[in-house]
Structures are given as structure tokens and as C-alpha cells.
Design brief:
- Helix content is about 80%, strand content about 0%.
- It contains ten helices and no strands.
- It folds into two domains: about 45 residues, no CATH class; about 200 residues, MetI-like fold (Orthogonal Bundle).
- By secondary structure, it is an all-alpha fold.
């Protein structure tokens, strides 16, 4: 118990120490901006004006509205990526023939930048929301699919032989053997997919839409509200950190060997 408390205390201390060091470096950078006449107009990028902007943004409802709009697009895109990616990964892991003929086209599609699909998405889909969800799905599906396939490849084939000998049906094989065995890898793939999707989401919201975190940053830049801009950047980082921590929690719950951080 004492060891657990000590470890928790150390993690908390390291967490806040890291943030404090980042804050100090940020403040030093803002100080040097203020010394140069050519850059003194950008002193509102500093930490103090940034933190002062949070109550104003909250009262205006900009943070809440941007959060819900972006989470809707991110959540729907990730859900589609999981629904598509996990079955593809299972097929890749279980069928050698499917894995052989699908590897090259999947690798080819995986290496295309998700944002490169934007002109096609705008042409095909009727709304910007649909286009952004498509871009997030294209960015997220491959980490999920390949992580699922890699996890299934590590499963001992004897498990399937024993299950078949005991009369397990395909549904039982999937739900009672495959999914529990690869859950760690699936959540790991979702964590990777989340990181990619989070990067794609913000620039995708720069164009076309009138809501979301990306739009709010672009709006702050256009109005030269630099303290709002940096506050929104911090908001994106905080939300992304929380989402990643949730993924880590589920990964650790399904990991038999070690804790992931």
C-alpha cells in the first residue's frame, strides 16, 4: 500500500513538474518577444494572457460549442474506423489468402495523407461534417486494422483447435476467444488511431465549417485574438491528453503483462 501511494505521489509530482517547466519555458519565450519591438505585438501569446482568456471564452460559449462539434465528428469517425477496421483486421489475421492479396492495396491506401482526400470528400459528400468524418475515418481505420491483425497473429493456433474440438461455433469463437485475446491490441490500435485522427481533425475544420476547435483557432487568427488562439491550442492539448489517458486505461485493463503509460 505504501509503495502504491509513493508511486502515485511520484507520478503526480512528475506530472506537475513537467507542466511547470513547460510554463517557465513558455514565459521566457514571451518575455523575449516583449523585448523585441518587431515582435512585441505578439506578447499576448504568453501564458498569462492565455490563462486570462479562458474565462472569457467560457462565458462566450466558444470552448463548449467547439468541444461538442469536434467531439461529434471525432467520435463518429473513430466509431466507423473501429466498425470497419476490426473486422478487416480479423480477416487479415485469420485468412492467409486475404492477407496476401489485401496487403499491397491496404498499405498503398494507408500511405496516402488523409488530408489529400479532402477535394474528393468535398466533391462526393453533401456536407462538410460528412467530409470531415470521412477524413477521420480514412486516417483512423488503418491503425485499428493492422493492430488487430498483429494481435490475432500472436494468438496460439492451438486455442482455435481446442475450441473447434469442443464444438465452438463461429460466433463463440469470435466472442469468447478472438476478441478477449486481441482486446489489448485493438485498444492499442484505437489509441494510435486517436492520435492520427486528432491531428487530422483540426486542419480539416479550418475550411468550410463554422464550428469546432479548428474553426475557432482560425477565427481567433483572423480576428488577431492571439490570447484566444493560444488558449484554444491549450484546450486541444488538454482534451487530447484526456482522450489518450482513457485509451491507456483500457489498454492497461486488458494487458496481462505490464502497465502502459
Amino acid at each position: 500500500m505504501k509503495q502504491f501511494v509513493a508511486q502515485s505521489g511520484k507520478k503526480t509530482f512528475d506530472f506537475f513538474l513537467g507542466l511547470f517547466i513547460l510554463f517557465v519555458i513558455w514565459q521566457i519565450g514571451a518575455f523575449y518577444l516583449s523585448l523585441n519591438p518587431a515582435t512585441e505585438n505578439f506578447t499576448s501569446f504568453g501564458p498569462i494572457p492565455t490563462f486570462q482568456a479562458f474565462p472569457e471564452l467560457w462565458e462566450l460559449g466558444k470552448i463548449q460549442n467547439a468541444f461538442f462539434a469536434s467531439m461529434y465528428r471525432l467520435g463518429l469517425g473513430l466509431l466507423l474506423a473501429i466498425v470497419i477496421g476490426v473486422p478487416i483486421g480479423v480477416l487479415m489475421g485469420r485468412s492467409k489468402r486475404f492477407r496476401e492479396f489485401s496487403n499491397s492495396p491496404f498499405q498503398f491506401l494507408r500511405m496516402i495523407s488523409p488530408l489529400a482526400w479532402m477535394p474528393i470528400a468535398v466533391f462526393v459528400f453533401t456536407t462538410w461534417d460528412q467530409s470531415i468524418v470521412f477524413l477521420i475515418t480514412m486516417a483512423s481505420v488503418w491503425p485499428v486494422a493492422f493492430a488487430t491483425a498483429a494481435g490475432l497473429a500472436k494468438v496460439d493456433p492451438a486455442w482455435f483447435k481446442v475450441a473447434r474440438n469442443l464444438g465452438a461455433k463461429p460466433r463463440q469463437m469470435l466472442l469468447q476467444i478472438i476478441m478477449p485475446a486481441i482486446s489489448f491490441d485493438v485498444f492499442t490500435g484505437i489509441r494510435l488511431a486517436l492520435g492520427v485522427a486528432w491531428i487530422v481533425l483540426v486542419p480539416a475544420e479550418y475550411l468550410g465549417v463554422t464550428s469546432g476547435l479548428g474553426y475557432s483557432i482560425e477565427d481567433a487568427r483572423e480576428t488577431m485574438s492571439y490570447h484566444h488562439l493560444t488558449a484554444l491550442v491549450l484546450t486541444i492539448g488538454a482534451i487530447g491528453y484526456v482522450l489518450d489517458s482513457i485509451c491507456v486505461f483500457f489498454i492497461n485493463k486488458t494487458n496481462w503483462h505490464r502497465t502502459v503509460s
